[in-house]
Amino acid sequence: VPVRVKGIYVTSRAIMDKRDALIEIADTTEINAMVIDVKDDNGRITFRMEDTMAHEIGATTNTIHDIGNLMKLLEEKEIYPIARIVAFKDPYLAEQKQELAVKNKDGTIYRDNNGECWVNPYNKEVWDYLIEISAKAAEAGFKEIQFDYIRFSTGKGIADADFGPLAEEKTKEEIIIEFIKYAYEKLKPLGVFVAADVYGTIISSSIDAGLVGQNYVEMAKYLDYICPMIYPSHFAEGNYGVEYPDLEPFQIIRKVLTASKKKLEMIPEGEHRAIVRPWLQDFTAS
Question: Is a pLDDT exceeding 90 seen at residue 256?
Answer without folding.
Answer: yes
